[in-house]
Amino acid sequence: xxxxxxxxxxxxxxxxxxxxxxxxxxxxxxxxxxxxxxxxxxxxxxxxxxxxxxxxxxxxxxxxxxxxxxxxxxxxxxxxxxxxxxxxxxxxxxxxxxxxxxxxxxxxxxxxxxxxxxxxxxxxxxxxxxxxxxxxxxxxxxxxxxxxxxxxxxxxxxxxxxxxxxxxxxxxxxxxxxxxxxxxxxxxxxxxxxxxxxxxxxxxxxxxxxxxxxxxxxxxxxxxxxxxxxxxxxxxxxxxxxxxxxxxxxxxxxxxxxxxxxxxxxxxxxxxxxxxxxxxxxxxxxxxxxxxxxxxxxxxxxxxxxxxxxxxxxxxxxxxxxxxxxxxxxxxxxxxxxxxxxxxxxxxxxxxxxxxxxxxxxxxxxxxxxxxxxxxxxxxxxxxxxxxxxxxxxxxxxxxxxxxxxxxxxxxxxxxxx
Length: 418
Ligand code: EPU
Description:
Elements: E1 3-7, E2 13-17, H1 22-30, E3 39-42, H2 48-60, E4 63-67, E5 72-76, E6 84-85, H3 87-92, H4 100-107, E7 109-113, H5 126-134, E8 138-142, E9 145-149, E10 157-159, H6 165-175, E11 181-185, H7 191-202, E12 206-208, E13 215-218, E14 226-229, H8 234-246, E15 250-254, H9 262-270, E16 274-278, E17 281-285, E18 295-296, H10 308-315, E19 321-325, H11 334-341, E20 345-349, E21 352-356, E22 365-367, H12 371-383, E23 387-391, H13 394-399, H14 403-409, E24 413-417
Parallel strand pairs: 2-15, 3-14, 6-7, 10-11, 18-19, 22-23
Antiparallel strand pairs: 1-23, 1-24, 3-5, 4-5, 7-9, 8-9, 11-13, 12-13, 15-17, 16-17, 19-21, 20-21
Residues 23, 26, 95, 121, 123-128, 162, 164-167, 304-306, 328-329, 371-372, 399 line the site of uridine-diphosphate-2(N-acetylglucosaminyl) butyric acid.
């Protein structure tokens, strides 16, 4: 298993290009199942989850051609060869459940392994399943698999009990081919949902309101091929903003949509970080002194849970106490104990973390427990005295494209140990 070895104390300076959004590219690839024509997706991030999605879609009958040098993927599914997302792929990547809606809409059948819990929480998919039932599917659980079947799906009014990102995407995709109108209320408003709606509209779907809490979909008989550019990854961008901020650096991010990062930008300004945002670009100027600021994670446009771990690393360097409330997942503080091993002063109290700064962090061997926790440890390592070894880097490789190369290009001393 690869590890990262990071020597702290370097100030990050220069420019970094932000890759396409993993959490948009994954549902976009699943959307290829909705048509027999070709989808060309641009700005695909070269991360391991995308390769897992490729494996899954190939099993289902997709022809998938990657062009890593251009960050594009061409996909065509002339015929669905299998309706099953097997356990070994779903357990590797929960986002595999995104094939449920498209398979059901195109073939009237889907068999998808039930994802188990993961490092950040139980993460049930009951709201996806309830929605498919509302659209007329029968859904049962057999041998650890969700088995769903229907004639043609029928439009319905669905009010989500709580906001779910992939749940909204799964049902929106399914509803594009349903008979009649579907209205999704209390939908996720994340930019990735709006991005998938843009792709589906290019494919001929009739969708209004994506990016707001009410999405209306008028089903059509079939969808066609399309070309679509994936939006920039706002979580990768936010991670670099925090890395620049804590290292007293001056870092310019290109290929970003600053509007997608409003809550992160606002929070960083509260801590004394200066930022300039213009179209497609953000520059962060890390101050000598950071001020503490409390944080509660919320659905978009609130502060993303996917940025909470990175913010905690920053909070260890702020002069005073920051309260961090994790409001989306029940167990997303695994990074706290590793940060404490590096010298952070953090007390956990249920869904709340109390971080007392500023602490001197010292390099240590730490273990990454999930994707964003790993990013938090890398950020802490960048300011720690001495060397940090971050183990289980495969978590990072699932969702950050060439993180160590990008960091090294702006001055970090970081290397991968094979
Ligand atoms: N929930 C339910 N029932 C459901 C669905 C969700 O109770 O049927 C709960 C979840 O357990 C959680 C909350 O609702 O407490 C929100 O979960 P959501 O469904 O929105 O999460 P997700 O769609 O599984 C996506 C991202 C995650 C990100 C969350 C929240 C993708 C592929 N994944 O997951 O990304 O943390 O939304 O914003 O889009 C990551 O990239 O590191 C990552 C974990």
